[in-house]
Specification:
- Four copies of one chain form a homotetramer.
- Chain A is α/β, with parallel strands linked by helices.
- Helices cover 40% and strands 16% of the residues of chain A.
- In chain A, helix 3 packs parallel to helix 8 and helix 6 packs parallel to helix 7.
- The model of chain A has no long low-confidence stretch (mean pLDDT 95).
- The interface between A and B is large, with 37 and 37 residues.
């Protein structure tokens, strides 16, 4: 699907969870994502897209997962989901640590929007991401980052429910397994994303400015 | 996972999209779901759970997809998702038709809650489902119905983001393919559902009343 | 405040609750709103704005309150608000009755959007109004209708929280008392509405346009 | 209205914006709220309720307004509301300053929940307050803090739209004028709050417990 035309003043790039714990060697989840992420060039692709979007004047948004802090999650919660229990147990993205810091190349610049932290998987749920997109006049959203069948899938689903037009970049997302990648890219996202493109295609599309 | 204890006065059963177009022979989507739905006994399981929940005093909620009406979707919309384009093209669940009516055995009874119709996949998005659950004091949600990797997956994800504890019943949901079932039951829902059980297990769990 | 410039393709007119029960002689709430509504010309102003908006190509949206149906509200709800208890007691906007029908001149035309019914006061809460506005590319919202300090105030507050720019038309809203009008127009809405204008000013603003 | 019975394990106390800028001598907004706040004993009442709630085992939640940071609000926003423009101009609740710190007696304790910061007036909008309340099983919400006709009114309206039962404490809220107090306490909140009580009544109600 490449019939999407981007109005760049209405287009946002959403970078989901570019934490060291996820996408840097030495991160807590790196051993789990390494196989996919190294094979599909996820990190260099994410960076290439970030740079192309900045050059094209596409506004940049970041959707960060809750940085773990003492007392988080189920210590006082009565109801929880397995993914939250895992996050609490592993203390992923711990606040104030290297793992809970964005990988260096993904440090937000002035004028770029870092949404409030999300507790589960959707970058929209219980955060200000939707209002930030609206305040900036965004209708078309390019989604990249981690992890395919959890945060990416949930964020794409929410974006569509909320009325955004979504482009997912197939080789700028990663996951724990190829089965998860396939579930997202072949079974689920084709229902929601208006376009699923490669990094190469995307960069070409947003360079062709009107 | 069978360590969930249900407080029945805080438990709701959510039946998603039990339309004739989906789960009855002759429905528009029946040819696509038949293989899975007949093999796993989805419809009789849904019915068995509905009856068990009613007997146990679990309140029943229905999450219906938008019934197609003339002018819906992309005629005036500027942004749309593929799943909405398909729905518009196929006129699924057309309002006022047999296909857009709940299968007979799933007719809501007095005191059962039919949420507002959803435009995409989540029974929560842009509807009153969350407030209806809150008004009835529900915290634990049992999810059954159609279709595994679209409405069921989205509804489960939203439920968890909103703070509900979700139980998914593996043989009371259906889909277009076994790959979709596997994506939902083995890859995605285990992150979100507090329990994934069979109909037999569920019926046993909600009969064991405190 | 008249420094708002409207981009008409991004502007929507939102008509809140133009039910006979509210704004027609003989309606259940008419005796309560008559004094204000007759004095400020609310109904003819609403109509004048509707016609001007249609002529200017501004898309029209309607936000209808829940039409009362048997079993609604607190019969099974565990928690309720006084305004909902009143609505249940008085059976206002009863479904299928004249009182629960839009006043004749406000019948929606083809291509105009009627949002899902709201249970309380905000036209956005638990409805599809936000997604409908997004799907039509709306960022600027002109709000008219009933009743100043309940549905209008709540809808304006929600619109702003969600990121819309709001214009409120001071003589195209009504209420039970001048105190309520003053609370809305002088104390509350000035915090949220980007502009509060008269019908005359509004009509002029949306006519002066390419 | 004093017919509300509290189930203390389902009851939360919500303290809205107890910033030095609002409720401490020397704060940026103190000159504007002083008259009302000193006359109705708002701050000592807020403290009395906080202590009573802690003693009764009622869980405590805080809803903090966005702490101003460089670049906030309309520098990149295309749409804004007057209240946000004022906040940006006055740099209220500036992050890292005394004014943007909770008044000393209102420092959250371990196990108490500080919701994400809100950009406008509702403690719920674009934050995690709703999910935090759900995760802790809360259905009844006692609301205190600042400022009557903006954050308090919006938070109460949102709470009710979302399905919570609200108690507002009339002498534990403050505002810029008696007109604003009257608008909230006599005209608006009676539609939404299940109970409006004095501090004395509230403390008595949550002490009388099985």
């Amino acid at each position: 699907m490449t019939d999407v035309a981007y109005r760049l003043d209405q287009t946002g790039l959403l970078v989901v969870d570019p934490y060291n714990d996820f996408i840097s060697d030495g991160g807590k989840l790196w051993p789990r994502v390494r196989e996919v992420v190294q094979a599909n060039g996820c990190v260099p692709h994410m960076l290439e897209i970030l740079q192309a979007a900045r050059s094209a004047g596409v506004r940049i948004f970041f959707a960060p997962h809750r940085r773990w802090r003492a007392g988080d999650y189920n210590e006082t919660w009565k109801f929880w989901a397995p993914i939250q229990e895992s996050a609490a147990r592993a203390k992923v993205f711990a606040d104030g640590t290297w793992g809970g810091t964005f990988r260096d190349e993904f440090t937000p610049r002035q004028g770029e929007v870092v949404a409030l932290e999300h507790w589960c998987s959707s970058g929209f749920a219980n955060t200000d991401l939707d209002v930030q997109l609206k305040k900036h006049g965004i209708h078309q959203l390019i989604v990249i980052g981690m992890r395919a069948n959890t945060c990416i899938d949930s964020t794409v689903r929410y974006a569509v429910e909320l009325g955004y037009e979504v482009t997912l970049v197939s080789d700028a997302i990663g996951s724990y397994s190829w089965d998860e990648m396939k579930a997202t890219l072949e079974l689920n996202a084709p229902n929601y994303a208006r376009a699923i493109v490669s990094t190469k295609e995307l960069v070409s599309l947003i360079q062709l400015r009107p």
